[in-house]
Amino acid sequence: PVLSVIRFADEEEAVEIANDTKFGLAAGVWTRDLARAHRVAARIEAGQVYVNEYFAGGVETPFGGFKYSGFGREKGLEAMKTYSHTKTVTIRI
């Protein structure tokens, strides 16, 4: 695990810094502004974004990364899709 502390001027720059990597497993956002938390979390390219905490979530929350941090999901309903295939069969009688 690695923690980087980098100064930024505004929200836009913070998102650019967060996304300036080949990896995207998890990210953390600390803020008192819930609207900002949602806005920034939506723009960060990571499989999990934790707000005002880190590494939360139980077995029901999907786990997986973006970019070089992998694809697919473990845990939760998202993981079930990995083990199933949807098929449509129509028959005219």
Brief write-up:
This protein has 93 residues and is α+β, with helices and mostly antiparallel strands. It contains three helices and four strands, in the order αββαββα. The chain has one domain: Aldehyde Dehydrogenase, Chain A, domain 2, CATH 3.40.309.
Describe the structure.
The chain is of the alpha+beta class and 93 residues long. It has a single domain (11-82), classed as 3-Layer(aba) Sandwich (Aldehyde Dehydrogenase, Chain A, domain 2), CATH 3.40.309.10. Helix content is 28%, strand content 13%. The protein is built from three helices and four strands, in the order H-E-E-H-E-E-H. The strands form two sheets. The chain has a two-stranded antiparallel sheet. It has a two-stranded parallel ribbon with strand order 2-3. The radius of gyration is 17 Å and the shape is elongated. The mean pLDDT is 82.
Return the average pLDDT rounded to an integer.
Answer: 82
Structural class: alpha+beta
What percent of residues are in strands? Answer: 5-15%
Under the CATH scheme, which class?
Alpha Beta
Can you lay out the helices and strands and say which pair or pack?
Blueprint: H1 11-19, E1 23-24, E2 26-29, H2 34-43, E3 48-51, E4 66-67, H3 76-82
Parallel strand pairs: 2-3
Antiparallel strand pairs: 1-4
Annotation keywords:
Aldehyde Dehydrogenase, Chain A, domain 2; two-stranded antiparallel sheet; 93 residues; 3 helices; alpha+beta; two-stranded parallel sheet; elongated
